[in-house]
Design a protein that fits this description.
Shape: globular
Strand content: 25-35%
Distance between the termini: 24 Å
CATH class of the domain at 2-9 and 21-114 and 164-194: Mainly Beta
CATH architecture of the domain at 2-9 and 21-114 and 164-194: Sandwich
Structural class: mainly beta
Number of helices: 1
């Protein structure tokens, strides 16, 4: 388990003459995954995430009777904050990405990209961006946040919005599935390209 040797970090400095681009490669090993339903890893990232690749092509789940399931999920969360009681406060950077196939039956890695400002939701979530931010609480009409529309009426914020990709401090990588990983599973690699 850990950050792979393929990671590249060109330092904390900002350079006027070029773009600063970094690559973090995190490996969830067999020992990390087997018999688990959820795995997490904390990594230090300060910058703007542009691309995320989740390579689960070597992953094997314990599937009763065989078959393929698409119940995996991926998410990035803030992991260096605590609440008033001193307990960890895990705030999400974006909405979870679900319905992922974490079995070797999926021959290609998943590739996600932030879509800052370019895509807007249409109420059906049929938009172009893969990483999105929800407007807030999703249950109870009274708890839903509102904003004023063009006519000045308070309107429920019910659409998703593109995520800028900005992160700071400890970032938690979280993978979950409803079916435990098999002892024969291979590694899952998460690659994050950020500037």
């Amino acid at each position: 388990m850990g950050i792979g040797t393929a990671s590249i970090n060109d330092g904390d400095g900002r350079y006027a003459s070029r773009n600063r681009v970094n690559r973090l490669v995190y490996e969830f090993t067999t020992l990390d995954l087997m018999a688990q339903l959820s795995v997490t890893a904390d990594v230090q990232i300060n910058g703007k995430i542009d691309n995320i690749i989740v390579d689960a092509t070597r992953s094997v789940l314990q599937l009763p009777g065989g078959g393929v399931v698409s119940d995996g999920s991926f998410q990035l969360l803030m992991s260096d904050l605590t609440d008033g009681a001193g307990a960890p406060a895990l705030y999400p950077y974006h909405a979870p990405i679900s319905a992922l196939d974490f079995t070797a039956a999926s021959p290609q890695p998943y590739c996600f990209q932030t879509s800052e400002g370019g895509a807007t939701a249409d109420g059906t979530h049929a938009d172009a961006n893969h990483l999105v931010v929800w407007s807030g609480k999703q249950s109870g009409a009274a708890a839903l946040p509102k904003t004023y529309n063009g006519a000045g009426a308070a309107t429920v914020m019910d659409d998703t919005v593109p995520w800028t990709g900005l992160v700071c401090g400890k970032v938690q990588i979280k993978l979950t599935t409803a079916t435990a990983w098999d002892p024969t599973t291979g590694s899952i690699f998460v690659t994050i390209i950020y500037s």
